[in-house]
Amino acid sequence: MTKKERYAYVIDWFEQHMPVAETELMYDNAYQLLVAVSLSAQCTDKRVNMTTPAIFAAYPDAESLSKATFDDLFPLIRSISYPNNKTKHLIGMAQMLMQDFNGEVPHTVNELVKLPGVGRKTANVITSVIDEQPNMAVDTHVFRVSARVGLTTNAKTPLQAEQQLIANFPKELIHKAHHWLILHGRYICVARRPKCEDCGITAACKFYKTDMRYVVEGLPKKK
Description:
Belongs to the Nth/MutY family. The protein is built from twelve helices and no strands.
């Protein structure tokens, strides 16, 4: 199977079985999404969704968050991974939003990465979710799944994977493909033992062909 055929197969399967693919983070506006995505680094969406309601109630917008003190905000974030840094970053982020962006969340990657605690991955998530810009956020799930399936080849960094994925997915599907790969990696193509028995794209998967089919089908692996 060529790479072009592999992409076509994967796209067709997801279009049929996951026509609606979106973030599992709970939010009502761009500000809330920015806060939630910033908190989600090295943390589960489930944990973030348990934490953000209290934050949004106390700090409903960038202006109120920009006036928060570390001691005020930290107790609301302490159950999240790296709470010290994230508390500082959120306050700094809100202050920059007020100073440089009139309290509004910018909608370009170049502007977003200027905010404290916002890297390229977070900026790509924000822009792809808010207005479906063709940006591909590569987290550990996307990086793992795309390499296993064969959507990327010898990508050593998230940026290399991002560039390959953007080059091969149709522009209008990139924002959706990001969620396809994340959700597939979160629930099916998990890190330790992928659930190939429940996977619908094994026919296009390099890793299944070279390694997992022998495990799933109980066959002796060819030497």
